[in-house]
Amino acid sequence: MNNRFNDGSAGDANYGTIGIGYTSYRQPDPHIEGFIRNALGDARSVLNVGAGAGSYEPVDRNVVAVEPSASMRAQRPAHLPVAIDGVAQSLPFADASFDASMATFTVHQWPDLKAGLAEMRRVTRGAVLILTCDPARLDCSWLATYAPEMIAVEARRYPPISAIVEGLGGQTIVQPVEISLNCTDGFSEAYYGRPERLLEPGARRANSAWSFVEAGVEERFVDRLSRDLKDGAWDAQYGSLRTQPLFDGSLRLIIGQP
Q: Which domain of life is it from (predicted)?
């Protein structure tokens, strides 16, 4: 799907709507950030594609950010560079312009994954980093029981890891990224041990999959989870997650070298 919404969103989600209050729930998580910093190595110039509000942009490097959504560009904090209005499949840079490039939680929004990855590879001298979710592992979360329709949407939208590996070419490493119990980046699995947070409308809105489910699905999810938290049914089955320090879910960091 190749929609350009009123705020310039280039993918299938309207961030003019779901981007409202996004940064209240989606803050870079230090544990995840460590994986990205290690993968960037000593790269000094970094391109961030689908940069959004700037999560995981290293502040100690020379970063150029590209983001098509006006509402997301407007939420970037003052200490980060102003993002360029652009899309992954048509990057306005010369070949080998950057030491490294990165794309976090964005490839599932791209209308042309192959073209976007090829463009990142073209403009990058070194490592290309893709932080994404493996659709084959989305059913590891308790959300697959409580919100199967939302998980099905996510599974359809996220490209297979093999497609990203193929698109990057060269030498590629796929790293599992475990999620910490108090993860500050509120994608759905971030609340694996804090289910109450997903009763907050803002927390669900900050996960674009909820904007694609049919009418009534979200309400049924809230009703069921509220009931099961109140009567203890959720804790009876999943309560151990409340103290589990790390969760190996679907999050993956793909590192491609030329």
A: Bacteria
